[in-house]
Amino acid sequence: MAAKKPGKGGKKTAKAPQATPAADAANKALMAVSTPASPDDAKKDAIFQCIISTFDAEGLNHIQNQQAKVVWTTIDDAVIVALGRGITDCIDSKGFECTPLAPAFLNLKNMGQVTVVSDLISGIAVVVTP
Amino acid sequence: MKRIALLLGLLLLSAYGNAFGQCKPILDLTATSPSKIGFSLCPDKPVPNEGDAMVIEAGGGQIVTTVKQSKLTLGTQIVRAEITEPAKAQEDMLLLVGVSTVTVKFGTNSLEVTVAKGPEALNTSHYEWSIGPATQGNKNTDTAGTTSTSTATVDNALRFRYTGEYARGGFFGQKTNALLQTTASLSIDTTDQSSPDFIDNNRVSVGTRLTNLSFGRLLMHGNLGIEARLDKAFHQDVRDADAVVTASGWVPVIPSITLFSQSQFIAAPLSFKASYGYRDRSQAGESVKGRVFEGSALYNLFLFDRFQVSFSATLTNNDLDTQPANTPKTQRLYKGTIAYLENPDTGFKVLTSIEDGSAGVMLRKVRQYFLGIALSKIDLSGAGAK
Predict the structure, then answer these.
(1) Which of A60, A76, A85 is facing B30, going by the closest CB pair?
(2) Is CATH 3.30.70 correct for B26-115?
């Protein structure tokens, strides 16, 4: 059994893989349709994390994704106020400034609405600065 | 003719009352930033613009604020106002303690605004009422425990329901405590028919309780207290007077469930109310005494992306001795409600509900249908909270 000869100086040399013209074209096409992460994405991500943690803390279902729908009419008013205050405080603690949300959540219940979490995030983002 | 007149009268009354399904001006404060006040105002009424001066009149004083943000989102105008003199924020906030409504003035406009009450708020009041048709679906007129002769001659009735609660912090206004609350409540659930085959369960109660109790995810938003209550059937000669220990709360380890759907629904988990204590029953001129347990649970299930199915069950068990004949020891009342989600902006609309069994002073088993679709179309219901 023949042993492999080590390279010069006993170190192996590795060649960088060469991009094929097809892969290069695919990368360019992907970059053309992609948008870089914006501050708005960071803000919406912070809002989503705050919604998940506050709903968990108040004893509601764990929100699995942004397509989940909140049925406000099943939730007591005092718990809705706790959700609004919890999410407001959580967003503030992440370096943003959020307008108190409890009144708007109470009105979502008063109007009997069912809110998709992605719409809730977009709606909250409007009153979160910067 | 009498029922049509009653229906028309209630329609007119509802025009003046707080109709369910409507926006109300509400404000809330944040404990972490006391100079910041949040509002949700209704877009069909005047709203302030950013930079406007806004005065809040409450508790005999005034809070002067400036509007820092005013945006239409989540269906209402969300406004953030900040107290103009931050040094006075703590003092100004005291004006809002224990207040249910305030007057907000900006420009030439003036609005009555409700102050939001969180879990820590002990001074609260709320009510809810509805009226609609009920159809009796049970031709079997067995009592909850034994059989009796049928007296039913009517299949349809006009059903009226009301629940209201008034709560104040402390023990009947004497001892104040962050957890102690005294409550008075009224519950009416009856029809315009005197037949015992329709629901007729009415209660007035006074009690004191510890609020906001929590034991991890086993129990949240819990209450534990004592209560004196009086139950009376309007159309039958039965009255119960109880002195009981009460407990209620959410059980988050049993969350609401979504089945056969592409997206998950977020709703309250299993909730319960229970009581145990002493009962004095007066029935047809006779009085009997004993112990009584009453427990009820409510659970929500969501199906096929569009349907909400709510189940509630109430179990009553008593050991009243020497009871009159036909009086049950154990009563069970089940209720199922099916609601349909046509449009998320208008929410679930009740398609129908069915109640089966008996509870409290209803000694005869009933099976009653409630057609909510008519109710939702004419919006003949009301709700309010302070």
Answers:
(1) A85
(2) no
